[in-house]
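Friendly challenge for the regulars: who can give me the structure tokens for this chain first? No prize, just bragging rights.
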Amino acid sequence: MKVLVDSSVWSLMLRRRNRTLLSKAESLLRASLEEAIDDGRVAIIGPIRQEVLSGIRDATQFLKLRSGLRAFRDEPITSLQFEEAARFFNLCRMRGVECGATDILICSVAAEKQWAILTNDSGLARCIQLLRSEGIKL
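First reply, four minutes later:
Bragging rights claimed.
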């Protein structure tokens, strides 16, 4: 099964290289990403790529990171996935859970393609949990 990797996990892999500074949970996420890369199961969408590359002040570091991420092609996003993301957003909001635009789009793409989501973001995790409680397979 493909794994849609959230920017929070990419950050663990790419920006926090010193493994001794990672918690046990972060180390497990990093290992999961490494395994998915080795197995060719990693998926990425454009908005995640943008989040990972945003905020890098050093041009050389930006170019190096951009080059590394180019090993993973963006999965296309359809109008139907955007519409479903809006439905998911509305559902979460009605239940008192706020979800970011990229987070809810991740949920929509993963649900439609039946992919796993790898994240270290508590907000995205809350969205996933609520959607699962509503019977949406994530």
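Helices lie at 7-14, 24-39, 46-53, 59-69, 79-94, 101-113, 122-133. The chain has seven helices and three strands. Your move, everyone else.
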